[in-house]
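ok trying this again, last paste got cut off
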Amino acid sequence: MTGFWYLDDMARLRKEREAIDELADRVDWLTDVKWNIESGLSIDAIIHAHGQDYPVRLTYPALFPHVPPAVRPQNKAAERWSGHQYPDGTLCLEWGPDTWHPDVLGAQLLESAYTLFDIENAGNPPTRRHVPSRHQLSPGQEARGHFTRYFLSPDLQRFFHDFRAGNTGTVVFHRHFQSDSSLAVVQEVQVADGEPWRDSWPPTTLIEERDSPLIRKAILVMVDVATDIVRKISTVEQLDEFLAAQGAETLSAAQARLNPPRYPLSAMVVDCAGTPHFLFRNTGEDTVLKVVAPVSPGCFADAPRNPEELESLKEKKVGIVGLGSLGSKVAMTLARMGVGSFVLVDQGLFLPENVVRHVLTLHNVAEYKVLAVAHLLRQLSPLIQVETSTLHLTGQESNTSIANVTRKLANCDVIIDATADPRVFNILAGAAAAKARPLIWGEVFGGGLGGLVARSRPAKDLSPHALRGIFNHYTKQHPFEDHTPPTNYDTIDDEGNVQTATDGDVSIVAGYLAQLSADALLAHEPSAFPHSVYLLGFRRGWVFEGPFHNVAIPTDHLEEKAPNATADQALTEETMGFLSSLLKDNDAGTAPS
């Protein structure tokens, strides 16, 4: 293989040449055909349409015929000939990346170019006609070339559509800078003397206070003109002339009246179709208006993105202890599934070495994991509620503080232990028992061998301690052999090599933990998970025959004895008498002896 398609497939080159020659002989609109090989194989030619000459260049790509050729003006400056033309000058023809087939010939693209010129410039004298597009641009394609964009949410769209000609107002927004663009976040709209209207879609992390130095404003005006007219405006002078002709206050007059202290006013002009046009004025460019590209929801935005049965999760609260690699992924997954409220507990700071398996990034180094994860959760939805604690549940802390955090966890609908710490497990098992809450826990075995997920639901499964005892008994019956006990996701194999669990391994366990938790939150009967303890295999070893080999540890045959609640009659009378004395002393305002 030479790497040059026309040498590797000489028969195809002959076919291309014959087709071009045949076309030039057959039609009178294609002349001056010349082949070139300066920077890849190409054809220069002139297409005649309605008395106008179009010097075109058809360039064959290196991967032809698997990739379509491009037809553009010979002029490097990319002349604008058509409304169906990309910024680099390439014509948008009927044969593009989305319709291409290797059997299509370069001659057919030249015919397509002629058809475009012939239709768009038909008539004598020529009058431009619209050529229907063969496809709709995606939001990503529409936004290309626009550094600043704004999200046109359904509520904001309806607001502008219901706005009436003659009305004026003020749009309050700020710019949220992203990796290679900025998002103008419309926070509220003030119309005349009415109450401010606020958009519901931005999460709390994208909302600025009204007195924030980042807040900017735009005048809002409705005009009874068509979309195409508004789109031609690009300077403050043009906009002022346009608004004056409509009998509306000009941008310059509004600037002098409102006198914003930090940034010049921008403009939001709504046309007769209810289409908003965001004309942005940047600092230092007082005379220039830049179009802020709207990004609208997709065509399936109103369709449920989660199974309908998950709708009730927005009313549920989940407590998670341990926001490391495993817990952070569980939290994010449950939030995306629809859980509306969280209590998160973790005392650890995020360190650079944590990045290999965690949802956080180097941007979060030296930040408390629990606070950074809470910030991510709030970015997912404006409705998510998150309580956090940086207390060390088994460390040297105030007993009162630990009691308060434990109480909050016990009041959650589900409690999740993602620490793999037996001491934390004991505390959470007690909290779960006190309020009859399900406890879910899991861990990743060292070296990525596999993992464990388990759940204990009150009155449905054995107690957490009983299930942990069953797992311990199982490991005695099936010893790990030469596998080193898991430490920081690492283990030593038979040859002495360190093996480490990957982000993929942790993600699998996190996914199962989230599913177990959702099953418990929804109180499925019967449960989608018939067993209480599952071992997940990621590779061959221990009890696993290979990847994706899961083992359920049976517990249905076991019965847990309920504690003896029968108390001695005398002891009962003694206890009740003591409590009664406390109540009497409290009523009398004295302390008991």
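PB: full thing came through this time. The chain has four domains: 5-135, 140-295, 313-553, 566-593.
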